[in-house]
Design a protein that fits this description.
Layout lengths: L1 H18 L5 E6 L7 H13 L6 E6 L7 H10 L4 E5 H4 L21 H6 L2 H14 L1 E16 L14 E4 L3 H9 L3 E4 L5 H7 L4 E4 L1 H6 L8 E17 H5 L3 H35 L3 E3 L4 H6 L1 H11 L1 H9 L2
Parallel strand pairs: 1-2, 1-3, 5-6, 5-7, 8-9
Antiparallel strand pairs: 3-8, 4-7, 4-8
Helix pairs in contact: 2-11, 13-14
Protein name: Tripartite ATP-independent transporter DctP family solute receptor
InterPro entries: DctP_fam, TRAP_DctP, TRAP_DctP_sf
Keywords: Receptor, Signal
């Protein structure tokens, strides 16, 4: 009898000991970003850091559109085929309309301070909760996609008039389309991977992107006129599959969250510091860089703000603009 009791105690002890050992768990991530782009660098860093995981975590990254474009990546995360991805709010808004408020033109006064006051504060928590409710995905964090600028094949854009009739590639978001149509251009949605060839063949006259994307995708070879319009600030939201996250033990989740927070800080810093280096490099390649007065562009796009204030709420937009 004593032996049977001892055996039961030992069995229980072994069972409890087993539950304290975190099982090995591989996470996966997919994104569309090219080498040298901060989100690409951040996921590579995250995977490298997890090689030394103390709780059994590891990560495999599928970069540069290996699973498709950003909407494809979102679908893969929703299905659970991929653990997480980072996507532009403009693409995420197709699954979570509330994310679209951050796509409004000239919403922020700058791209290095104000966006993080918003995303890391009550407004960011509010929008993240709505995204999770609408899409079923967990918002892990807000990464930077930088300020976006216009670049053309032949024209230095100094005023909205310089965009009149210009066929410009934009992300296929209603806000993006409305913004550039309001500036007098012919906004043209097109997959990111087709932009270089479309510029080379003259299918489009211009496009818009952050300086990092403009440089790393070598768009400057076909469109060497860069105007620092800063018309949008782009959040790259990191979203994950809820069921996949639920598989992490408390210790694994704590370790992941700590490393992810450090990587997020670095990703944002890269966008802030890369801008100067990008511009120096681009000028050395013969790119003409123009710094226009933003006031006429802001005035021309006010009807876009007014239109979407009816959708997202005038109060929310004012709260974002007033955040410091």
């Amino acid at each position: 009898m004593k032996f049977r009791n001892l055996a039961g105690v030992l069995s229980a002890a072994i069972l409890l000991a087993g539950t304290s050992i975190a099982p090995a768990l591989e996470l996966t991530a997919a994104h569309v970003n090219p080498q040298g782009e901060p989100s690409n660098t951040a996921f590579a860093e995250l995977a490298e850091r997890l090689k030394s995981s103390k709780t059994g975590l590891s990560m495999t990254v599928f970069p540069q559109g290996q699973v498709g474009d950003e909407k494809d990546a979102i679908e893969q995360v929703r299905l659970g085929a991929v653990t997480m991805t980072t996507v532009a709010t403009s693409n995420l808004s197709a699954f979570a309309p509330s994310a679209g408020v951050f796509d409004l033109p000239f919403l922020f006064e700058n791209g290095d301070v104000q966006p993080w006051v918003v995303s890391d504060g009550p407004i960011g928590e509010e929008i993240a909760a709505k995204i999770e409710q609408e899409s079923g995905l967990k918002v892990l964090g807000w990464w930077s996609g930088g300020e976006r600028h216009a670049f053309t094949r032949t024209v230095d854009v100094k005023t909205p008039a310089d965009l009149d009739g210009t066929k410009i590639r934009v992300i296929g978001s209603p806000v993006y389309l409305d913004t550039f149509n309001a500036l007098g251009a012919k906004a043209t949605p097109m997959p990111y991977g087709e932009v270089y060839t479309a510029l080379a063949t003259g299918t489009i006259d211009a496009a818009e992107n952050d300086s990092s994307g403009y440089r790393n995708m070598r768009f400057y070879e076909q469109a060497p006129h860069l105007s620092l319009t800063g018309h949008f600030f782009l959040y790259k939201v990191v979203v994950a599959n809820v069921d996949a996250l639920a598989q992490l033990t408390p210790d694994q989740r704590a370790e992941f969250d700590e490393i992810f927070a450090e990587v997020t800080k670095h990703q944002r810093e890269l966008f802030a510091t890369n801008m100067t280096d990008d511009l120096q490099y681009l000028k050395a390649q013969g790119v003409t860089v123009t710094q226009p007065d933003k006031a006429p562009f802001i005035e021309a796009t006010k009807p876009v703000i007014d239109k979407y204030a009816k959708i997202y709420g005038e109060d929310l937009i004012k709260r974002i603009q007033a955040s410091r």
